[in-house]
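Quick check before the chapter quiz. The format below is the same one you will see on the exam, so make sure you can read both the input and the output lines.
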Amino acid sequence: MFLKKIELQNFRNYERREFKFTENLNLIVGPNTVGKTNLLEAIFLLASRKSFRARKEEEMIQSEKEIARIKSKIYSEGEEKSLEIVLTRGEINGTRVAK
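Here is the expected output.
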């Protein structure tokens, strides 16, 4: 199994960003504070359904936003599969969302 693509929306410092990966070696490099650890956190969240940094979902959602999304394409068992996580503050458009 390998992660082919991940799309982040309103997640930490990413308003909207897409990353594509290969089966081979993938490097994540960049200066401090550009979001390398945030990308790793999103991948960890997909794999484990929890964050290694945040205590609450709200901490991973950009301020002033109601939801954050992490969408991915995973290649597993000979086929491509989709996985998505939606983080909320407990309300969407004024309607309480069960957690």
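If your answer matched, good. The chain is about 15% helix and 40% strand.
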